[in-house]
Amino acid sequence: MTDKRLTLVTGASRGIGRALCVELATKHNHHVIAVARSQKALEALDDEIKAAGGQVTLVPLDLTDANAIERLSVAVLERWKKLDGLVGNAGVLGPLGPLQTITPSGFNSTIDVNLTANWRLIRSFDPLLRASPAGRAVFITSGVVPRPRAFWGAYQASKAGLEGMVAAWADETKVSDIRVNLFDPGAVRTDMRADAMPGEDPLSLPPPEEVAARLAELLGDDVTAHGERVEFRTK
């Protein structure tokens, strides 16, 4: 296991996060720390990765629990002494509709998962990424940031905030061995996309596995990109 890169992925139970865990563990020689709320879904992921000869550590965790994130960083420090990769993938669509109709709880929960939780990850895992000879961090953003649209206010506010925060961290780490980037997957065949666009033909969209293959490239020790916003494009 010593030659494997250690990468933590949030939102690992489905969609892009799940596909990325499989991609990294079975094709890129990573030991994956898979973080998600669903124990059952994580166990199914574990079965798939181990059947293919990969290695994964399951962490059932709610990212809105700040203490749980801190405890996880301590556990990673004690067991591995470093972290080679961090992927802030977990996110929620939140309530869609006119801003004045969104409840405070609906708005706050969207910000907490999509923005604040990623700050907690940065705060807790920055030292461990610096301990790696090639720390890599990627955060999943959205096309609604450069192209805002009506009724998506809470979600796009959270993603715009994420982009600003990650840009600041990238500037703060530019003289380190860490490489920090944003990844915009575009429209992907996921449950979240189906919730947002119920009338859309899912077969017209790329599957998560295709997107994950591109995302995995940003987590290698040979990556030089830093502070960039990388967009997935289908041919």
Q: Which structural class do the helices and strands define?
A: alpha/beta
Per the principal axes of the C-alpha atoms, what is the gross shape?
Answer: globular
Q: What's the pLDDT, averaged over the residues? A: 93
Q: Order of strands across the widest beta sheet?
A: 3-2-1-4-5-6-7
Helix content: 40-55%
As for the CATH topology, it is Rossmann fold
Number of domains: 1
Order of helices and strands: EHEHEHEHEHEHHE
Profile the largest sheet: 7 strands, parallel
Write down how many β-strands occur, each being a DSSP E stretch of 2 or more residues: 7
CATH class: Alpha Beta
Distance between the termini: 36 Å
Model description:
With 235 residues, this protein is α/β, with parallel strands linked by helices. The protein has a single domain, classed as Rossmann fold. Helix content is 44%, strand content 16%. Helix 1 (15-27) packs across helix 7.
Write the layout of secondary structure elements.
Layout: E1 5-10, H1 15-27, E2 30-36, H2 39-51, E3 55-60, H3 66-80, E4 85-88, H4 104-130, E5 136-140, H5 153-172, E6 179-184, H6 191-196, H7 208-216, E7 229-231
Helix pairs in contact: 1-7, 3-4, 4-5
How do you describe this structure in short?
This protein is α/β, with parallel strands linked by helices and 235 residues long.
